[in-house]
Amino acid sequence: MIFEPIGTLYEPTGKMLKDPEGNEYPEMKPMDGYWVIALDLTDEDKEKLAPYIVELEKPPVKFAGRDDTVYLKFPDRETWLSLGYEKVEEEL
Predict the structure, then answer these.
(1) How many domains are there within the chain?
(2) 17 inside domain
């Protein structure tokens, strides 16, 4: 599995804002949860991660622009880390 922890994903609110130069851009709001995007999940990964796999109608980001990006939503970073995919060095 290839993965990229994102943390917070954002989605448009439907409201348009303007910057000081008058350019319009969509207002964004944070989506609940701690997000990780992934590619190439094995059957074992799919089974282990099934409770966290989310289908998004309009994904705000894709892994390397690929349409087969898998979206994983966790209640928090600690839950993601507890699964052992990401190794984090302890602080001294």
Answers:
(1) 1
(2) no
Start-to-end CA distance of the chain, whole Å, equals 29
38, 73 contact by CB (below 8 A) = no
Burial (CB count within 10 angstroms: exposed 0-12, middle 13-18, buried 19+), residue 48: middle
State pLDDT tens for residues 79-91: 999 999 887 665 5
C-beta neighbour count of 62 within 10 angstroms: 13
Partners of 74 in the β-ladder: 34
What amino acid is encoded at 83 in this protein?
L
Residue 72's domain comprises 2-9+28-82
- pTM for the structure as a whole: 0.81
- Of the candidates 63, 82, 64, 75, which has an alpha carbon nearest to the alpha carbon of residue 31? 75
Is the residue at 89 inside a domain?
no
